[in-house]
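Protocol step 4 of 6.
Sequence for Hexosyltransferase (Chanos chanos) entered exactly as in the expression construct, tag removed. Do not edit the line below.
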Amino acid sequence: MKFDTFIASVRPFGPVVVGFTVGLTFSLLSVRWVTTPFDYAAAEDAASSQEGREKVVGSPAFMSTGANGNSDDFRPRIVAYEPAVKNKTKEPFRAKYISTELGIRERLFVGVLTSKNTINTLGVAVNHTIRQHLDSVVFFTGMHNHKLPHGFPVVNHGYEHLTQAMFQTVKHILRHYINEYDWFYFTQDDTYMQADRIKGLVSHLSVNQMLYMGKPVEFVDKQIQARYCHGGFGYLMSRSLLLHLKLFLGNCENSFLHARPDEWLGRCVVDYTNTSCVSEYEGLEYHHYESGESVDYSKEAEQFEYVLTVHPVSDPEHMYRLHKLFTHIELQKTYKEIEKLQAEIKNLSEVAYEGKRSMVWPIGINPSFRPENHRAVLWWDYFTEDLIYNCPDGSPRCELHGIDRMDVEDVIGVAVEEMNRKYKPIIHLNKQQLVNGYRRFDPCRGMEYILDLQLEVINQKGRNLSVVKRVHLLRPLSRVEMIATLLVRETVTVHIILPITSQHTDHISSFLDAYAKNAIEKSENAILTVLFIYDHFEAQEVNQHDIFSAVKNQIKSYERKFLDLKIPWISVETEGPSQIRYMDVISKQHPVDTLFFITTVQTNISSEFLSRCRMNTVRNRQVFFPIPLQDWNQDIACHKQAVPKMAHLNKDTDMFNSSSWNEACVYNSDYVAARALLASDVQEKEDLLENFVISDMFVRYSRLHVFRAVEPSLHQKCSKQDWAASVTDVQQRN
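Step 5 output, structure tokens:
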């Protein structure tokens, strides 16, 4: 029984054992047994023949140790170390831009031929009309010792002869621009060109073609069958054509000098590239218009729908009138495209899941803002023709004035005009009065209006009727202001200006503590200057009783505590705490490149805000008026409850006070420039300075960008404010 079990368990391994045995047997049978005796004599002969050469370990010559063997071969030898010479590999050149490394070129280069008699008139007009639409425009002239106008690039090649000037222009382009652009367009300063249409033409052309495109003109020599492009109407040349012409340009330098410059270039192109000027290529046409002495462009507006260039242009006024005409034509095209897209959106909305309900009015404008909670609901402001029931100062009702009145009048006028356009000639509408008006600002759409207008309806028979019509209008967000980001220095010293009156002495201790903690201990690059403001009575009693003596002692204690700290202070006597008056004193004592941060004693200064003050204030470009985060009155916000430790950015304990304009970051040079304009306006009424704040001065008397933004790191404590003065400031700004 046990034997059967053993056989059953071993049986699966039987084929393996048999196969291994058979394979080993056949392997042994196939081996060829050869016995070769080692010949020591031959080995010694081989060793002697290899004297002076390296011995190979394991070879018979290496194992020779007989009496005839050379034992010196086995002695160690010192080999001098020679370090391997490192090949100086040339570092690969990496282009500054990836487009250069990949061989991607710009699309279009425009060269304008001008002269010393026209560069300051027609040249400037050409630059004004095309510069904003083209990336690369260069003017070429050959005038000597002539003052060049500023604002656009001019290449002075020094040749006044027209043909030589044309040769030098092409030579300069081949030397400096041929590897950067695909297409080259040549024109004259007495030619108006529609830049956007030229760009559109180039975008549809292949860069590999030998193309010479413009207005074809026959050569003076009638035997030449080809044509050249008239220079007055401009002409387009491909990069491939210019590269081929580059090889033979020297041959053309002294040829055909009697010809016109455009004819000279055309003759050179025809002779050496066998390319003739064409006005049509692959369905694309080069449209041009020849202007007369007295042409009424308004009657011939339809002819300019596809025109690329107009020649000749007699004066800059003529150039600007043409630019206005072409701009109007392009604007009408844009309106038609918008109407076409709106019709397509309207048709597609019918097959949408929600049908026409998915279509948003006006068509093509973003849908309305959807609030996430009741706190984010946008409210409507009610107004009439004379009053508005939501005022900037928080009062329930105030008169419409300034920009608000202009806005309401404009909206009512547009509403009546659009209704007359819709219903004419059947009826005519006249406004009688505004019954109700509502408006709100939607951050996704713009300013929305709902108007209930009482209108007088007059039909074609002269009968009239008074009706009330509700209309809905939208002023969309269309004009977006792009602010260029300029390079600013993050290490510039911030001069903190702190004005103090007798009402602020109780808060100076907390301000100095925050300044020491956030600026001094962190070695912040900032200097605090305290400005003590006395009225007339306080200034007379300063020797007997100085109301700021305690504050001055605190400043001295901080200077003793921090040895490197110096807090300068200035005493000023003034009838009222006017920002303009005390900043006049500060400005005269600092260089023009000084960065000021004007603040109040309720403010807690942080290093984060000082960094943003440096970044957001750009000299000769921008001033910064931050919106501080101000605490609510703790007695009201935390009634009979403990004040939370982390009360920062909490809707129940603080808010961004948009009515505060006391904090400002400005450069001294910008302040001096705006102050000079203000002085010329109020030189006979100095009392007006009492009602002026710095923000008003920059808005009215400076072209600098006034940047206004919320600043969470600029924290202020709640304080009693002169609300009457605040209301006056808001009304003045409006």
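Step 6, annotate. The CA atoms of residues 187 and 209 lie 21 Å apart.
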